[in-house]
Amino acid sequence: MSTTKLSQQLHRIAAQWPGDPFRPHLQLKTLLESLADHPQLTPHAVRAADALLHNQIQKKYKLTDKMLRPKSVPKHYERLVEGVEKSARGIGRPWWKIFFNIW
Predict the structure, then answer these.
(1) What is the per-residue burial (b if ≥16 Cβ within 10 Å, else e) of 17-55?
(2) For residues 5-29, average pLDDT
(3) Can you give the pTM of this predicted structure?
(4) By the 8 A CB rule, do 103 and 79 touch?
């Protein structure tokens, strides 16, 4: 496969990549666009970026309910996702919830 075709594919993948709200100055999209112009771009690198974009590894290796809800702290990952989503919207936990470790 020619380098220009690989470069076009990686530019297309970079255009579809979602932005990171926590690091606006450091985006993976920018890195992928820079790599697309690299003279030694390989098909393997393009396939890897495409697999990351389309969550192919997550689809191949499903997470079981036992992994997502460990018996020691069953709501850990639910709270983690909720915290990240709220943080992205600028909503923080009140100091007293942090102090008393209340969710």
Answers:
(1) beeeeeeeeeebeeebbebbeeeebeeebbeebeeebee
(2) 93
(3) 0.74
(4) yes
